[in-house]
Structures are given as C-alpha cells and as structure tokens.
Amino acid sequence: MVNMSTDPTFLLLLLGLLVIMSNYGHFSSALRMPPIVVDVKKRQADAEINCSECKGPVYSLGLNTYQVPMALHELNRARLVQSMLEKLDSSSSSSSSSSRGVILLEGGKQTTRYDTDHEPVFRQESFFHWTFGVPEADVYGTISLPSGESTLFVPIYGLDYEIFCGSSPSLDNIRSKYGVDNVLPIDQLDDYIASQLDGSVDGINEDDDNGNVNDAQLHLLSGLNTDSGNYCMAAHYDGIEKYSKRRNTDTLFPTIVEARVFKTKPEIELMRYTNWVSSMAHVEVMKCCQVKMMEYQLESLFQHYTYTHGGCRHQSYTCVCACGPSPSILHYGHAGRPNDRQLLDGDIALLDMGAEYHCYASDITCSFPVNGKFSDDQLLIYNAVLSAQIAVITTLKPGISYLDMHRLAERAILKSLKNGGLLLGEVDDMIDADLGAIFMPHGLGHLIGLDAHDVGGYTETITRPRSERPGLKKLRTARTLEAGMVLTIEPGCYFIDVLLDLALANPKQSKHLCVERVNEFRGSGGVRLEDDVVITDDGCENLTVCPRASSEVLDVMNGKPWPPEKDVLPELRRNWVNNDNGKMVRYDL
Amino acid sequence: MVNMSTDPTFLLLLLGLLVIMSNYGHFSSALRMPPIVVDVKKRQADAEINCSECKGPVYSLGLNTYQVPMALHELNRARLVQSMLEKLDSSSSSSSSSSRGVILLEGGKQTTRYDTDHEPVFRQESFFHWTFGVPEADVYGTISLPSGESTLFVPIYGLDYEIFCGSSPSLDNIRSKYGVDNVLPIDQLDDYIASQLDGSVDGINEDDDNGNVNDAQLHLLSGLNTDSGNYCMAAHYDGIEKYSKRRNTDTLFPTIVEARVFKTKPEIELMRYTNWVSSMAHVEVMKCCQVKMMEYQLESLFQHYTYTHGGCRHQSYTCVCACGPSPSILHYGHAGRPNDRQLLDGDIALLDMGAEYHCYASDITCSFPVNGKFSDDQLLIYNAVLSAQIAVITTLKPGISYLDMHRLAERAILKSLKNGGLLLGEVDDMIDADLGAIFMPHGLGHLIGLDAHDVGGYTETITRPRSERPGLKKLRTARTLEAGMVLTIEPGCYFIDVLLDLALANPKQSKHLCVERVNEFRGSGGVRLEDDVVITDDGCENLTVCPRASSEVLDVMNGKPWPPEKDVLPELRRNWVNNDNGKMVRYDL
Fold it and tell me: In what residue span(s) does the Aminopeptidase P N-terminal domain sit (chains A, B) (predicted)?
C-alpha cells in the first residue's frame, strides 16, 4: 500500500484541496458571514449539559477519585470564544471580518534538571490546561474563530520512544479522550495555521478580487502575571514568524485571564473535591501529630494522604509546616527553611498545605497546638484569627471590595489583641497607623484556580491599582467581588521580631503596644486559618471543610470522628460533602 | 558608628589593600612559587580525617537521619584542586604559573513554573553540590588555585525577604555551617575574582616589570552531558565578560567529571544510607501491596516512607510503578503514563524507585507478583533475570569492561529463556543476531552518584566510543571498571510487542524464537532487578539490601521480617547495615 503521508502525488492533491477549501470551504466560510455566535452558544449549552450529566470523556485516576468531565474544558473554550468574539466585534469597524482567525496555545514542554536527563514530573501550563485539559507535554492547541472548532497537535514519536515511554494512542483515540473536534500530527500545525488565515504553504492570501478584506488574525497569549512579575510568552514554533502581520497579542491574554477569574459549575465542583481531599488530609495530620515528630513528617503524611486517597500527584504549592517560632516565617518550607524543626511540647503548628487534582488547586491552612492543648494565650490568638475569618465570611457577597475585607480582618484581629491586653487605644487609630500589617503583613487572600495564586488579581481595565499601604500592598487582588470568583480567606496573626521592633521604633504604632504583654508572645510564631470560598449570588460557599472552632480542633486531635455530628460554626458556611464514587455529594449535618 | 560597607573612605582603603595584597599578599603568593601541593595534600588529609571521625559541621534532617560530614565536600574540593594542578602543570610549558587562578561555580537558581510565582522545591545543581554541599539557591562558589581556598558568595536579602522567607544567618554562621574558608556577600564576587586574577576593579594587571608572567586563569564549567545531550553552562554574572582573556573552559569540566566518577569513602557511606532507606521502603511497599490497589499508591507509599523515615525530600527520579503489561514500557510513570493502572490478580509489579538524601541518589528495582504467588512462567523470567544479576555481580572487579558485563547479562537471560523453551539454538548465535536487545533493549546499568545517571559515562579521552549495536548502544558507559566507581546493575527481561514483531520479521532472530511459547508471554510485562554496587579493589560491594531470591520476596510479602535470619544469596554481596543514630553500621547475618 502506498504510504500516503510521503507520496508526493498525495501531498500535491492535499495541498490543492487545502487551497480550494481555503477559498470556498469551511475554513473561510465566515469571510462573507457574521460570526457564528449561534454555534458558539450551542457549543456552550451542550458543554454545560455534558458537564452536569457527566457525559462524554472524563479524567479520573481510578478507584473513587473524582471524575472530571472533559466537557469542563469544552465549556471553557466556548466561553473564551464567546468573549473573544464580543471583544473583537466591539473593537472592529467592519462588522465581522476581524472576528475571523485562530487562537494558538502552546502546551508546556518536558524539562530536564540543569544539564542532566533528570525529568521532573511534568505539570501542564495552566492556560493550556484550562483550555484543553491535556496533562501531557509538547502539545499545541488551536481554536478557530468564529466557529470555535478545537484542534490538538500532538507529537508523533518513533520506535525508541515507544519502547521507553509507551506507544502513542491513535489520533482518533486522543480526540475521544479529550473531547476536542480534531487531532492532527504536530508537523501539520503550520499548514493548519496557514489555512485558518486563508493561506496555504505558499503564503497568506491577502484581500481577494471582490474587495473582501482578509484580516483573519493569529491570536497569541502574551501578558504580565501580576503575582510573579513574569511574562506569559506567546506560542512559538519554527516558521510562525511569517504570520507577523496577522499576529494579535492584545486580545487573547486579557480575555482568557478574565474568563479564568470566573469559575464555572464543573470547575467549582472539581475545586470542592480538591478541598475535600486536602481537608481530610489536614484532619489526618492533626490526628497523627505528636510532640517530637519533625515538621517534614507532617508534610510527608499530607502528601501521601492526598495522593493515595485522592489521586493528587502534585501539591498546589510547597507545604508550609511551621511549628513553634517557625510560623513567623510566612513562606517557611522552602529549601533554605525545609520544614526541619522538631515539634516541641507547647508549640503551635501552622500547616499551610493544599493538593491539586487535574491541575485545580486547593490552599488550606490549619493551626493547632501540637500537644493537643491550647494555652490561654494560644487560644487568644487562635480566636482572634477565627473571629476575623468569621467576620469576613459572613460579609462576603457580590459588590463587596476585597480591600475592605482585608481591613475587616485586620480590625477583628486588632480588637481581639486589644481585648487580650496586647494593644491600647482605638482600633481606628491603629488602622490609620498601619498596625494591622505588623501582625498580619500579608494580604487577606487571593484568587485561586489552576494556580494557587490565580491570574486576574490586577488587570489593566477593571481593577483599581495596587495600594501602597503596608498590608494592603501585599493583597494579590483589589477587585470588587462577583459571583463565581473563588478566593482564599486567610487571616493570620504573627509575632515577627523585626516587625515588632519597627513598630516599637515608630511612635504612631508604639503608643498602641503594651510592650511587656506583646513581648510575652515573641517567639511563639503565629496562627493562620485559611479557607477557599466561592462567591455566590447572595453570599459565599466555603469549599474547605476543616475543623475550625477550637473545640473541633481538640476533638479531632483526641480521636473524635470528622465531620462532627453538629456544625457548631454554621457562620463559616462549610459545605459538608462526601465523595460518592468520584462525585461530590452534599449533605447536612 | 560609621556604616563601613558604604563609607567611601573605607571602600578606598579596602581597594588599596586589595591592590597591595594582589601584588604582595597571599592572593598572588604562588606567582613566584611552585603550586602549594603540600597545602592541598594537607587539606585532603584533614578532610579524610574529618570525614572518618565525623568532625566539623554535618548535614542531617534530624531524628536518626544520616549525619553527612560537610568535610565530604572539603575532600571533594581538595581532590579537585589536586587534579586541576596536575593537569595544568602537565599542560604548561612554564613550570607553575598557569596553575594560578580561580575556579568559579554557579549554584542553581530558584525557578518558577511557567509565568506563575509557583516555586518548585529547589534542588541544587549537582556539580555545585558535589563541590560545596549547599542546598540553597542563588549562591556562587570559588576555589583559589593553587591554594585550594574556598569561598561562598551568598545573596543578602532585605526586610521583605526576612518576613516571608526567614532571616539570613550571619556570614560567619554560613561559614561554620558549610565548612568553607570564607563567605562573602554576592556583590563582592566580581572584586574577588579580579583579585584572584591579580587585578582590581580597574582591570586586570598583566605581566609585571620584573618579567613575571601573569596568566592566572578563570576556570569555568562547560561541557556535554552524555546522558542528556545537554550542555553544562559556564557560570555567569553581569561583568564577568571582562575576564574573557583569562577564561578557561577546557580544564575544569573533564577534571571534575572524572573526580565525580570515583566516589570517596564518605560518599559511599552516604549512598549506603540512601540505598538502605530505599531498600527498606521497597520492603514496606512489598508488604503493603495488594491486588486492586493502584500503581500510584505504591509510588505514594514509597515516597512517604523515604521522606518520613529517611528525610529524603526528593526522589532520584520519577517512580516507575509498572504492573501487568506496564513493565514493557521502560520509563513508565511519566505524565503520559502516570502509574494509573489498577493491580490485578496475576500481575507482576516492577517497581523502579530510589530516593536521594543530601542530593546523593539511589536507584533500585524490585519485581514481585502482586498476589504474593509466582506462576511457573513468572518464576522462569524472574530467575532468568536473577541469574544475570548474580553472574554480573560475582564477576565485577577492577579491569573488567562494562560492555562485557552487559553481554554477560544478556547471555544469562538468553540461556534461561532457552531452558524455559522460549528460544532455540546456540546462545552465541543469538548474541551475534542481537537477540539480547529484543528482551533487554536497555543498557545493563549506569554510573550513579549525585545524579541517577551520573556523569562520566563517556569522556573524550579515556573511554571507548559508544557502540552502535542494539542494546550496547543504550549503555550509558563503556568504561573499564575501576575501584571507587558506583554503578547500577539492572538486568531485565521484557516482552515488548513491537520488538517481538521486529524479531519475527528478522530471519536471523526469528529462527531462535519458539513463537507459540514466546507469544504466551506477550502482555505479561517483564522483570527487572536493580542493585547499586561499588567496585572495590578485588570485587564489589552491593549497597542495595532488598529481597532478591524469590523465596525472600515471598517471605516478605507473607509478613516475615526483613532482613532475614540467613543470607541465602551471599553471591549478591549485599552488605547488611543498620542506621545507628545517623551512622551506617554493618553487621553479619
């Protein structure tokens, strides 16, 4: 049989066909038509049904791990296309032509450690994963505009790869697995891009004889990540340079960032799962924690629990397992401070740990006394933070400013510290003096999604700029809250020597400090409580289901079952759930 | 008090002092003297004593984790300097001047995942770690030639870093912690390099008025990693370009690579520990393994055991947990094949897992029936591989070619397959027909050290080139063995459809195959056994202490204790050890 992929006659036929299609076929059907918004809306509606009924392919790691409908990504793509078309239409003078084009995203590449052949376990790039849900490396993906047609371009490997890494599934199997419209070998990517831009391998066709403008665009992702200060780099492959006139790097990034800020129902259910798994792992760690263990043994247990019971191969971030004075180092756990302290009698443990599943994150912090008993002073700080958590969660709803929530948490903590004899004077004066940032130098929380610090915290168009005030300037978003946003709420209160010393040297702050009482707390670390909440139409739901009341914490540490029989803190809006064969089922206590 | 670090008068004084020292002081003492080989030899002798007596600073992760003497790295540095001086002397026409200079190494940088602020847990670059043993990011290190004086250059962070990542220890504390001669702030690196090259901030001093040649060299690391095909990149910082005339990238790489090939006593003891921890973890996994578990649950358990009992935060490589047919994919476990199969009754599990501690690797494979019972055919393949393992380990000694060991393993396996009725004809003919590579397409093993696939497998000067023959061409080294080398011995026998089909289509190979019998084994995966051995003066020691006899495997799976009461396979040369408060203690069964 003729090998069709290399027979020159076949290739010429194929090229001819592509040229014909690009002039008359579906690739350019929109040239003379308005955008097929109806199609996109239908795609979106279908995806929503597929998600809610869990139709079509799913991702799962077996046993009773969560079954993620791949339609989640179909829905993301439909939402993205809808937003892109709206944006392109509104910015275009001619009615429709600029809506034509193709979105190109480049998946992550398998890396090696320095010069060696050591390959860290691959984790997909988040924009690509949001769009296509493909966990493998070295893949490209496109979405046609306005049709919304999705295509994956996958590497084709040889015999050596098959022996060492396994045979590649057929293109059709990949298509079924990920629920995309097409799958093609990666060496056809350039031809495909050309066809989408009404061109061929010989070049791009510009305006035709009938006066129709051809301005189909190649949309690439490029923009600033406001959490890292790093730039997201546009997709690249050898040969893409020839489309420089059609390259558009202005539209896609802000559009996809904004789409990622608002979580869909299936995304929220998936994050409910990662929160459930991580909450149960926190409970397990609380139960097993004992004086004389090492901090890293808690990290190891958490990772083991979430992987073996939840299928979570990756953590959302490096575990912070900070005991005794360690919690005053906010990002404890990195290579320079590797969770290597021994737990001592009387220590508070602050454990900030969250697993991810199918690249969707959780981010949870629990604090508890490692010996199972709160001292009066420990309880004072614990309840100060808990009061902040309750104050914020009972206030959250659409229209509320996240900046105001940060201030609300500060107020609750300062008020408790005043009641506990650490501070003097009016809380309003303390806020004016930036005293809140002495005890909570970090922001109240952040958007969370595919990344623990998710995109969209600050954007050029719709958010107020970052505040310059201590505390507030660390806030990873200053947005007004809207339904569908998922954020962490993580108030904390720490005793950080260098900050306390600065406060003592600052008359506006020192006048509020009861120095002797404050000094009693030096070296005691601190407390943080962190939940992941989704903003609803009239308030919020708490996805995290950890022990929060001090009585709950002590009960769990004393071996009582979790979840409890009664919810003693309904104001925390914890949604009690169970995993029923890979689905999250809610119930009332 | 005057802030000396910014007072211009002080800076001028310091500069003047540096210029004086560079002309008359210890920086250039070698300009008119032969290399201080005596000093270097004394450094080496001191380091050996410090290692054997565990004097000076140690690295340990607490509890009874291994106590690594930091003198291990002092010894590495002394050996490196000694080799550098020998090489530079022998290549120099003038007797000593070219031996002067400074080695500059750049430690790894903390990276972020794509454009986000997600920071993977930092793991030091291996050449840097071998030399200095510093686990933290963003550090430079130098070694002066010929004196051997070592200096670390560390970043100095500000208040924000201290709050989020912890305060930096003092320079003196860092010096004590790592056992180096000096620690300086990173912003003094360029001045220091200049001084080492007999220059100042104004430039490099060339030959002096007395006719003395100044050709002090800046030695940078640059060369090819033969396992990955990647290049190791020379240390860089802004401003280093001005030393281009003094730059030497020829000498350091081959010298340090060759030094890394030969492990010192303290390195071998450290690798004995990682092997012990990983062996015990393999035993734990064997004990807990049950039908219906998922492959990744074995991975999770192994990681948890090695971290929580051994302080191993990193694995040497991604765990291969391959059950049923999966072992026929040699690098199973990557993101495209993520250990996600369920263990079925009748499966063989092939688990290739090894943890690292203080960046020193272990690399161990066990194979066993998940239901605790070998079928006759499974036992045939298991014993075929075990016979290869025994044949090689009883033959290993200095002077033996590793290529010959690969052939020896192939012969043992082919002979067993012939005895088992899978193959026909003479084993010699099978070898000539490359039939060994059908059943074992990978190499017998590789050098191991800081990297699982350690450097030095092929070098320009002392090793024969890579063979082109199937199987042999995958061998990661073709060296003649010498005492002090640590290598993996990992024979395997797999049933890989695509290779069996190729063999059937090749008359030279197919004539040896009993097709029906071979086909009975299709889909059964395969078996690999992997030990880490150190070549001794008269043979080898096996650092891995896993169950190997099939009876040992079944005993462990049935709950019997490990290590056993009697060593039924003394020919495997397993060294029975226990961890006594962070030291490895050997004992006889």
Answer: 68-214
Yes or no, beta carbons of B301 and A294 under 8 Å apart: no
Residue A14, pLDDT above cutoff 90: no
Give tens-digit pLDDT for B43-86.
999 999 999 988 999 999 999 999 999 999 999 999 999 999 99
How far apart CA A63 and CA B427 sit, in angstroms, is: 45
Q: What is the pLDDT of residue A203?
A: 60
CA distance A504 to A477: 30
What pLDDT does residue B168 have? 87
Q: Which amino acid is at A2?
A: V
DSSP structure class, residue B536: -
Strand B150-154 to B182-185 pairing: parallel
CB proximity under 8 Å: A 259-298 to B: 294, 296-297
- From chain A, the residues in CB contact with B159 under 8 A are 498
| Nearest neighbour of A137 by CB, restricted to B108, B232, B335 | B335
Q: List the single best residue of A63, A115, A474 to mutate versus B (max B Cβ within 10 A).
A: A115
**B67: contact with A, CB 8 A cutoff:** no
CA distance B330 to chain A (A): 5
Is residue A313 less than 8 Å (CB to CB) from chain B?
Answer: yes
Check A335 against B162: CB less than 8 A apart. Answer: no
The pLDDT tens digits for B417-443 are 999 999 999 999 999 999 999 999 999
With a pLDDT cut of 90, the percent of chain B lying above it is: 84
Tokens linked to A228 = 């890292």
**DSSP H helical ranges for A151-264:** 159-165, 171-178, 189-196, 252-261
Instruction: Report the relative pairing of strands A320-323 and B101-106 from DSSP bridges.
Output: unpaired
Total CB pairs under 8 A between chain A and B: 207
Q: What is the ipTM of this complex?
A: 0.92
Q: Which residues contact B44 (CB under 8 A, 6 or more apart)?
A: B75, B78, B79, B82
Partners of B165 on chain A (C-beta within 8 Å) are 329-332, 334, 336-337
Evaluate whether A312 touches A356 at the Cβ level (below 8 Å). Answer: yes
Q: What average pLDDT does the segment B175-187 reach? A: 97
- Collect contacts of B557-562 with beta carbons under 8 A, ≥24 apart: B557/B286, B557/B287, B557/B289, B557/B368, B557/B372, B558/B372, B559/B287, B562/B280, B562/B283
- Asked whether the beta carbons of residue B340 and residue A61 sit closer than 8 angstroms, the reply is yes
CATH number, domain B28-261: 3.40.350.10
Band of residue A217 on the pLDDT scale cut at 50, 70, 90: very high
A164 close to B (CB below 8 A): yes
Residue B453 with chain A: CB contacts under 8 Å: 116-118
**Mean pLDDT across A235-256:** 95
Residue A160 Cα, gap to closest chain B Cα (Å): 10
Select from A114, A308, A313 the Cβ nearest to the Cβ of B338: A313
Angle between helices A252-261 and A71-91 (to 10 degrees): 130
Answer whether B207 touches A (CB < 8 Å): no
CA dist B61 and B472 (Å) reads 40
Nearest-CA distance A299 → chain B (Å) = 9
Q: Domain spans of chain A? A: 13-260, 265-586
**Residue numbers of B between 338 and 377 with CB closer than 8 Å to A:** 338, 340-342
At a CB cut-off of 8 Å and minimum separation 6, what does A448 contact? A271, A361, A362, A363, A454, A486, A487, A488, A532
What is the third-level CATH fold of A13-260?
A: Creatine Amidinohydrolase; Chain A, domain 1 (3.40.350)
C-alpha–C-alpha distance, residues B500 and A56, integer Å: 36
pLDDT at res. B203: 60
Could you name the CATH architecture of A265-586?
Alpha-Beta Complex (3.90)
Q: In A296-447, at which residue ranges do the beta strands (DSSP E only) sit?
A: 314-315, 320-323, 348-353, 355-356, 364-369
pLDDT at A89: 86
